[in-house]
């Protein structure tokens, strides 16, 4: 059992996974980028919260002019939701790229 190829492959995979995790944990550039992106997302989500509150207030008022204003507010909400999806997609790609670049460099060096 000591020479089981499956156990050896698992050990190599675990070492590789730990090495990549150490890279991300110790890479301030990766964390700074993620932090910046999360702050952008939070800003958009905060704006959406305010928009939703305004839409609700306008709806409850039943004033025709306020109902008309809701059209533009809801359009902005829809655009903001797309923006959040795009930001999360970019974060995912950037994070994956950081891992991939490090893994490629590590594989060449190791």
TrEMBL record:
Residues 9-18 have a biased composition (Basic residues). GO terms for biological process: entrainment of circadian clock; positive regulation of circadian rhythm; rhythmic process. Residues 1-24 are annotated as: Disordered. It comes from the Eukaryota. Keywords: Biological rhythms, Nucleus. One of its GO terms (cellular component) is nucleus. It is found in: Nucleus. Residues 27-106 form the Protein EARLY FLOWERING domain. Belongs to the EARLY FLOWERING 4 family. This is Protein EARLY FLOWERING 4. It comes from Hibiscus syriacus.
């Amino acid at each position: 059992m000591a020479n089981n190829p499956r156990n050896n492959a698992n050990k190599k995979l675990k070492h590789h996974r730990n090495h990549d995790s150490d890279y991300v944990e110790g890479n301030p550039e990766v964390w700074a980028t993620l932090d910046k992106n999360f702050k952008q997302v939070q800003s958009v989500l905060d704006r959406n919260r305010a928009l939703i509150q305004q839409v609700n207030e306008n709806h409850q008022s039943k004033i025709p002019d306020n109902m008309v204003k809701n059209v533009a507010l809801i359009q902005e909400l829809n655009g903001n939701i797309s923006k959040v999806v795009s930001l999360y997609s970019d974060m995912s790609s950037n994070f994956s790229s950081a891992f991939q670049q490090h893994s490629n460099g590590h594989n060449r060096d190791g």
